[in-house]
Fold each of these.
Amino acid sequence: MMEHLARLVADHGSAIHLQGIGSDELFIPSALSLHALARSSPLSAIRPARAMKSMRRWSWASTLRVLLYNQSYPRWMASAAEGITAERAWGTAVDWEIAPKMPPWATPDAIDAVRRRIRKAASQNPEPLAPLPVHHEMLRLTQVNGTAVRTSSRIGAGFGVSFQAPFIDDRVLEAAMSIRLADRMAPGQVKPVLAAAMRGIAPDDLLARQSKADASPELYIGLRRHRRRLTELFEDSRLARLGLVDADGIRTVLNSLHIDTRPLMPFELTLAGELWLRALPTHARSAGTPTPQPVRGAS
């Protein structure tokens, strides 16, 4: 995808491609923002809590669970290790990070290997990137996005194109994290802080929008066009040879009907792993893959 974008940008005579990556992570009020506000100013959290409860159709039990969440980072990581095969709680989960989950096509050996690594990381009593989960997650996701943009620029360099993302700039991150939690919450607005900052610069109708675009149609179209090729790719899967995935499970999800994209979300990383293994020299595959180095604050 990055090669395709870089080629398009170069064909239009541009050497820089601006991206909006990082704005969601910094400016969309999340349940973590509500949780942090409840800790610092309980009375100020009442109105936004009622609004979020209504908007997300939470029960009062789910709402209280969000407001009263109080788990240390190491304890969260340890509990995440035990829950990597549990069904993901959509919409009501409040954790330090998005909880890691294994896809249904992961083999028991792969699940055990991941669980052991997370347990080991938790036993080392790691420190979060920030005292509050909302700030920890903002920092962590900005790091992830920064890595993605640097990788994109390396790909684009072959076409004379660099990828730039202003929302992951250090100064922008510092400014976003300095905003009062109460000002981050504005029922009925997608990114209230960003909208206020862009008043008089961006069109008013864009600043007043109450929803966010959904890319699901693109995923469904891509799957429909390339289902046969993807299925054939996993007929002789390198991941399956290593005992990490069940190829039948992957074929099932590729050839089934889904009411939303959630069952397909883990497939992107599985596909990336498969293509990466195929790109490795034969001697590297037979000798084993390098062990990733741990990153501070990441599980």
Note: Residues 133-156 form the longest helix (24 residues).
Amino acid sequence: MDDLLLTLPIIQPQAAAPAAPAKPRKPDWLRVKLPVGPEYAKVRRLVDEHKLHTICESGNCPNMGECWGAGTATFMILGNICTRSCSFCAVATGRPTEYDTDEPRRVAEAIQLMSVKHAVITSVNRDELKDRGASIWHETVVLIKQLSPTTTIETLIPDVKANWAALDVMISGGQEVVSHNIETVGSLYRLVRPQAKYDRSLEQIRRTKEAGKRTKSGIMLGLGETKDEMYQAMDDLVANGLDILTLGQYLQPTKRHLEVAEFIHPDLFAHYREEGLRRGLKYVESGPLVRSSYHAERHVNVPI
């Protein structure tokens, strides 16, 4: 028996696996009310009747209840399937099948029926199209202006991948504000926007400014950026002619997307607003729930 015991292997106790870092808990300041009310129902009905897409729904925007309740919405043209696979975005990725030449008319008529004072139009990326969808963009803006001459328009346009001729068409319909979001700081582009380039987005903003437009961009916070990187991004945007900047908290849309690295306190958002103005931006909308089109009607009158 003793000999048998001597042949048994000695089992060393294993060290406990390190505990996984706790995920940051969503703070109270990010809680929003569910969308309700007659104005919300009216917008919901018009969107469904006209078979329209909205980034409010596709992007899981936390302000949908507030904005739709006020009778406004951000319309998404050129379908709801994007050719890009950004790791933060809730919009479906794939091969788009929709190219509806009647869409500009339907969007313009819906805006007229809603009596919208300020319309925001955005789109998915359509990299497979030679003109990146620029002709649909242009016609949509032109028809909105024809049917609703007093309606002001912001277009939140995608990265045209240096197709500057397409950019010229996109921004020439008569819109008052042209927005293009850089989304994050330069060091995080490969992680957050793998099919985009930081410098190329800055050039797109610069070219838009040179065309005489009121320029706007947005950054999501809480992806792992540092304060110094945020300051650098603001300086880069100012150097490339940006007028208006929106800053908001990144929220993970599904478990397949990037996790939130940090929930940014409202005090830091307030600091970034003051810092952006100090560095030369003309207007900064900054807060945890701010999104690109949040309070967009205020941005029309920013001097250029």
Note: The chain has one domain: 34-298.
